[in-house]
Structures are given as structure tokens and as C-alpha cells.
Design brief:
Elements lengths: L2 H25 L5 H9 L1 H33 L5 H7 L8 H12 L4 H10 L14 H26 L2 H9 L4 H30 L2 H5 L5 H11 L3 H30 L17 H31 L8 H34 L3 H10 L7 H27 L11 H24 L5 H8 L4 H12 L1 H17 L2 H6 L7 H10 L3 H29 L5
Length: 543
């Protein structure tokens, strides 16, 4: 295999990542102007309002929770801080829709909380008011609890990199710890906090399971309803274009913030300064502030899902669930392997031929992360369905053979969607490992007569082995949790754990939905624990 062939394969991977996004944008113009008018006058204002509400609330809330908790565990000593700094990242293992199932079971009218209130107070069903969990506010709460670790991890890494001198100078000038945090530490960490909040916002607009279960009308639910419930594919494509433009705007903001984060001031870390111990009430308040997100985002949902699963009568080791796990693991394994191979090829091309075109292919291949799975699914379904129908017509006319759906109904289309969606995650992880390899290593290898493929195999991959493994695990778990693309693209006879959990919950069989949900959470813990261990060892989050 020659180096030129590796570069061509990298371009193939880039085209594969860009094509569905471009197809989704172009297919929006297949509908007539009347469809656009109907969308603009009916559903677009509602979808825009609810999506913007979620974006604003989740963005602000995740920034607040993530930055405050990161500051406390980085700068101070208080009861439980050592395990809290790891536990604060654990909610990231939960898909937001799984959290929605657990809290609906806990807080809904027939749930244990309201039932206990009625028993204790002697109230009837209409004698009291209780917040409705299945609401726009409830969806914002679920997404906030799950997504604040994005801000927490980035902000914690930023606080660790800041110079302690600036904070000490502010304290010697009479500033209280709170004002020193607000005036000194927070502005220096602002790029990291904004970057984490933007990641949370992009996940919010891509979410389908939570908003669909709570019956909140967003762009994600509108695309799915237009495609399946109404059978209006032009409308689904046009809604996808609207969401695509919004997602790409956020992607541009995220990339700009990432560039600013790299230039954030660095210096002696806070570990060089003795951490003050918060005593008495201050220490317990700090512990409670950090403990509350862990309780709401991990401990309570795990307990509730366990209670639901025990009482569901479902057998995790039954043939049906074994089949679901096999399907999910098969899809995730193949998609993770192919995605990481594509990331390695793209990263190798960008490293060996540094240029504007190399930077461009990295940006293009990572666009899928900012695009919801439903948009990618539409971008794949529209051209592939047209291709299948054209082949079927030709074969029927020429040979009298009905070919049916050759590509559209296959699992390979799902795998392509996953590759497009999660290529950025694999690239970021692989690049973090490659950053540890000095560029002169490549020159030394070439001077010893090693070709490009041999340098990749004998130098790059062995050194970046841990990063490649991390990329595999992250993409594997992301594929396990992905719901919108899976719902749209999966064959009728091929179910996954995510689809099973969603369908059981949609039928109000929440106890039964707890079983596949717990399995998804178990898989989600793997990369989170690896990430926490890496941050604890290095003190830096590379993103």
C-alpha cells in the first residue's frame, strides 16, 4: 500500500462524511414553494421557539453548574472532594432520554413521590399542584443534568492550567474568594466554559428521545413526524435544512471558542498553591453544591432504574434481550472500527501534507458532530431511496426482476450514518495522541528509508495506541446511545437496545424500558471512567 493510496482513502472518508449533509441540504429544494409556505406559517414558529428555549436554558444552566462545581473541586478542600471530582462527570454516561424515563416513573402522578404525598396529606388527585415533569421545562432539566459535565470537564482543566499568582494578587488586594473568582479566574476560563456550553447546546438540538417522550415539539421531533407520521419527505428535508443551518452556526461558534481556549493564559497550576480547607458550614455547603448534580444526574436515576427493572418481570438474559445486545454491539463495533480507521487516514493525511486543504478536510469530516442524527438520516435516505427505486425500475423493465430496497433497508446505511455523526469524536481523540509525537520523528523515519504506510504502522499507531483505543470506546458507546438516526434507518427486523427502550417508553411501559436503559448506562460508563482517569492523571482535557 502506497502513501498516495492512503491519501486517496482519506479523501474518500471525507466525501463519505460530507455527502449526506450536502444531500440533506439539497433535498430541501425538491419540495415546492407551497410546502415552504405551509412550514413557515404553521410549525416553524413553534419549533423555533421551543428549540431556542431549550438552547438558552440548557446553555446557561450547564455553564453555571459546570463552572461552579469545577471551581470548587479544583481550588478548595472540603468533605468528599476527592470522589466528587470524579463523580461529577458520571451523569455524562446517561442518555438524556433514559434519565427522562427514570424521572417520569419517579415524579409522574402514579409515581412514588406523588403517591406518598397523597398518602401522608390525605389529598385527592385534584387537591394539590405538582410540577409537570413531561413539559418543556422538564426536558430542559433532563438535558441540563446530563450535559453539564461537558462544561465541568473543560472548566476544570482550564482552572488547573491557570496561574495561581493572579488569584493570589486579587486576594492580597482585598478581594473576597468569590469576587476573585468572578473577576480573575472566571474571565480566564471563559473560552473553555463557552466551548463546553456550546457542546451541550449542540447535543440539545440533536436530542430526539427526551423531547419526543415529553411531547415537546422541536425541530428533531418535527423531522421524524414529517418523515414517518405524515409521509411528507420534502417537509422533513426542509425542516432538516433549517436545523442544519442552526447547527452549523453553533459549530462555527464552538470552533471559534476552541481557538480562543488554546490561547488562554497558563502558568503555575493551583496544585502549586496550598488549597484552603473550607471548614464548618462552608465546607458542607460546598459538598452539597457538588453532590446535588451527582444525586440528580446519576445516583437517583440508577436507583430508580434498578427498582423499575426488578419489578418489570423482564429477563436480561432472555433470547430477545441477548439478540438486542448482539445487534447493538455488532453495529457499534463495526461503526467504531470503520470510523476510527477513517479518522486515522484523515489524521495521517493532515499530518504528512500540512496545508490549507488538509485543514479543510479535517473541518469537513468533523461537520457531522454538529448535525443531528435525524438530519444525517434524511440526507442518506433521500438519495439512496431514489437509487434503489431507479435500479428496481431498470431491473424490472429489462429482466423482470424485482430487486426491492438494496441499500435503504440495510444496516450498512445505519453504519454510514454513524460514521458521519461521530467522525469528529474519533478525530479529536486520535489527534490528542498524535500531538505527543514530535514532527521530526516522521523525518527520521523517512531518512531511514521508511515509507508513509510504514511510518503510520510502526511509529504513529504504537505511540497513539491509547488514543486510538479511547476513540474506539467513545464511538462505540455513542453509537449504542444514538437514537434519531437508528429510528429512521433501522430495518424492521433489526432492533437495538436504544430503539427497544424508546418504544417501550413510548407505550408507557416504563418499568420494562428500564432494562435496556440500564444496559446502555453500563456501556456509557466505560468512556466516562477512562476520561476521568485521564484527566486525573494529566490534569488537562484535550478536545
Amino acid at each position: 500500500m502506497t502513501e498516495r493510496l492512503l491519501h486517496r482513502m482519506a479523501w474518500i472518508a471525507v466525501v463519505l462524511c460530507v455527502a449526506p449533509i450536502l444531500a440533506a441540504a439539497l433535498s430541501a429544494f425538491a419540495g415546492d414553494l407551497q410546502t415552504w409556505r405551509d412550514i413557515l406559517s404553521s410549525v416553524l414558529p413553534r419549533y423555533t421557539a421551543t428549540t431556542l428555549f431549550l438552547v438558552v436554558i440548557v446553555g446557561f444552566s450547564t455553564a453555571l453548574i459546570g463552572s461552579v462545581t469545577a471551581w470548587l473541586v479544583t481550588v478548595y478542600r472540603f468533605p468528599g472532594v476527592r470522589w466528587l471530582e470524579i463523580a461529577l462527570a458520571l451523569p455524562l454516561a446517561f442518555p438524556a432520554y433514559v434519565l427522562a424515563y427514570a424521572y417520569t416513573f419517579l415524579l409522574d402522578h402514579p409515581g412514588p413521590v406523588q403517591s406518598l404525598l397523597r398518602d401522608l396529606m390525605g389529598w385527592g388527585p385534584r387537591d394539590y399542584w405538582f410540577p409537570e415533569v413531561r413539559s418543556l421545562g422538564g426536558a430542559a432539566l433532563m438535558l441540563t443534568i446530563v450535559l453539564y459535565p461537558y462544561v465541568y470537564l473543560l472548566a476544570r482543566a482550564s482552572f488547573k492550567q491557570q496561574s495561581s499568582n493572579a488569584f493570589l494578587v486579587a486576594r492580597t488586594l482585598g478581594r473576597s474568594p468569590l469576587r476573585a473568582f468572578y473577576r480573575v479566574a472566571l474571565p480566564m476560563a471563559r473560552p473553555a466554559i463557552a466551548g463546553g456550553a456550546l457542546l451541550a447546546v449542540m447535543e440539545t438540538i440533536a436530542d430526539f428521545g427526551t423531547v419526543a417522550f415529553f411531547n415537546v415539539q422541536t425541530f428533531a421531533t418535527g423531522i421524524y413526524q414529517a418523515w414517518f407520521s405524515l409521509g411528507d419527505r420534502p417537509a422533513a428535508a426542509q425542516l432538516s435544512l433549517c436545523l442544519l443551518m442552526f447547527a452549523l452556526l453553533l459549530a462555527g461558534l464552538e470552533r471559534a471558542q476552541r481557538g480562543k481556549a488554546r490561547t488562554a493564559g497558563q502558568g503555575a497550576r493551583f496544585e502549586t498553591m496550598e488549597k484552603p480547607r473550607l471548614k464548618g458550614a462552608a465546607g458542607w455547603i460546598a459538598m452539597l453544591i457538588c453532590l446535588l448534580p451527582v444525586l440528580l444526574g446519576f445516583l437517583i436515576p440508577v436507583v430508580m432504574l434498578g427498582v423499575m427493572a426488578v419489578g418489570s418481570g423482564q429477563n436480561l438474559f432472555a433470547a430477545r434481550y441477548i439478540g438486542l445486545m448482539q445487534n447493538s454491539v455488532l453495529l457499534a463495533s463495526v461503526a467504531a472500527g470503520l470510523t476510527v480507521i477513517g479518522a486515522v487516514l484523515i489524521g495521517f493525511r493532515a499530518r504528512t501534507r500540512p496545508s490549507r486543504s488538509s485543514k479543510l478536510i479535517v473541518i469537513l469530516s468533523g461537520l457531522g458532530y454538529a448535525v443531528p442524527g435525524g438530519v444525517i438520516a434524511v440526507g442518506l435516505m433521500v438519495p439512496m431511496a431514489a437509487f434503489d427505486n431507479a435500479v428496481d425500475e431498470v431491473m424490472e423493465a429489462q429482466f423482470g426482476i424485482n430487486t426491492g430496497l438494496l441499500i435503504t433497508g440495510s444496516i450498512w446505511l445505519m453504519i454510514v450514518a454513524y460514521i458521519v455523526r461521530f467522525m469528529a469524536a474519533a478525530l479529536n481523540s486520535y489527534d490528542s495522541g498524535m500531538a505527543t509525537i514530535p514532527s521530526h520523528f516522521d523525518a527520521i523515519g523517512r531518512s531511514l528509508g521508511q515509507t508513509g504506510p510504514r511510518i503510520l504502522w510502526r511509529v504513529h499507531l504504537p505511540v497513539a495506541r491509547a488514543s486510538v483505543l479511547t476513540a474506539l470506546l467513545i464511538v462505540f458507546v455513542d453509537v449504542m446511545k444514538e437514537l434519531p438516526a437508528t429510528l429512521i434507518l433501522h430495518p424492521f427486523n433489526f432492533q437495538t437496545l436504544a430503539v427497544q427502550a424508546h418504544r417501550l417508553a413510548a407505550d408507557e411501559r416504563l418499568a420494562e424500558a428500564a432494562v435496556p436503559s440500564l444496559v446502555l448506562v453500563g456501556f456509557g460508563l466505560i468512556p466516562v471512567m477512562i476520561l476521568c482517569r485521564s484527566i486525573g492523571r494529566e490534569g488537562v482535557l484535550r478536545g
